[in-house]
Structures are given as structure tokens and as C-alpha cells.
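pls read this stuff:
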Amino acid sequence: MNSDLIAGMAALVAADASPEVLAVRGDVVVVRVADVVLKAHEAGTDLAVLAQRLRLAADPRLGELLLTPRSAPAIVLGRVVTAWPMGTPVPQSEPEDLPMEAAGRMLAALHRFTAEDFAPPVPLAGAHPRMERAVRDLTLDTPAAQLVRRAFTTLPAFDNSGTTLIHGDWHLGQLVWRDGYRLIDVDDLGVGDPAWDVARPAALHAAGVLDAEAWGRLLGSYLDAGGAGVPRDDPWSVLEAPARALVVQMAARALSAAQRDEKELTEAQEALIDACARIVSTHEPKPRG
């Protein structure tokens, strides 16, 4: 852990601050100082693009959906650091206790905005690059890793023609409570295909990780609130391909994290590897340029 980076992050709040480390995921570091959360983003983060995403997050029209950044991003020891008000994470409890209805309504509200609602430049959502980066960063050469790569070859070429505002990396871990539920981690916020925001829980459902009742609550509340990302009569007509891509992404991330942390896969992560096996058995590889 980079103690100099952590100290430099804390100094953005107060010179004598005593930071609490909340999370370390690869080279991403999250610390808390009093009521402020500071995040050192991945090495190589594009400062200009992230600043565009933060500008969207600070738009007052999104104030009841996204947590508002406290300030412009800073640079600490060469790393991009952002500051946020503290929120209470959603407990990862039993499925029946998860705020699926609130989450569905929030996604539907977010998806009402388009690129035309904001002054340019409006960044492209980072969903596709995040998925591809997860596979590219997978350095293992095990049967499970090879399976993930084979599943990746079945994916179609995704375009970037969508104009709907999407989170780009949505899951329940991106919800916190601060005067109501708010979305956090806007690293991939931008315009794109709204089906990608719904596709991650769809992927978890398809992999057997998220039960049918919880998935139905989320999808139903999204559709009832006017969510435009998926058709009510056939949601899987638009969810299948991005859900398959996100199974691949989550499986690749799980293998990389297990290697980094020297841990065994969890039961849920094993289910994602099994889902990759089903993908390979039912889909042919696609030619990729």
C-alpha cells in the first residue's frame, strides 16, 4: 500500500488528517477523512475525460441520482484523485432486503437524459472499454482463464452510437445512502446503450447468482418507471449480448483479483466461470479486427 499516496490524498482535506483506508482494489485506493471520501483512480486515467464525467455528475438536474463531487479532480503523486461526500453503502444482505425497486427507478430516471441535454463535450460511456480491458488484463494461463478468453471471442462488435446517459458500470455496490439513494463511481458515466446498465444484473441472473425474484423486482421497477433501455415484451432481445459481455468481464476480473490477492474463487465467481463455459458451448467465435 502506498502510504505517501494516502497521506497526499488526506492532505487535500486537512494537513493533519488521519485517513481511514476503505478499499484497495489493484491500484485504486479509497480513503475516508471525516465526512469526505477520496478516490485515487486507476493509473493512466484520462484527466480530461474524467473531468467531463464529473461535470455531468455535478449537474443539479442529476442531484437526486448521482452523488455530487466536492471539487474538481486533483493530482497526487501522478495519480488522479477525486473527493466526494461520504455515503452509507447498501448492505449486501439477503436478496429480499436489497433496494431493487429504488435501483430500477433510479436507472430509469437516469436514462431519460440524452447527450442533447448537456453542453458539449459529453463523453462516451466507458462500458465497452472496461469490459475489453478486463480481458486484456487477465494474464493467467489456466483452463478457467482460457475459457474466459474463448467466451470473449463469441461477443459481437459493439458500437458507440448510443446517445442515452448511462452509468456505464452499474451494480448494487454503486448505491449509497446520503439523503436518499445516490449512484457513485462515475468513472464510466457518459452516453451509450442503456441496456448495458441493466445487463449486469441480467448477467448475474443468467449465471445463477441473482435469483429470479430479485431480478424481476429490478427489471419490473425499471420498466414501470418508464425505463427505455429494454423493451417490456422481450427484454432479452437487447440484453443478451451485453449480459454475455458482462459475464466475461466479471469472470475475468474475478480471476485477476484471485491471482492478485492469492485467494480462491467464491461460489458466485465460480458460477461466472461456469457461465463462460455455457457461452462457449452455445456461441460460435466472431471474427475480430
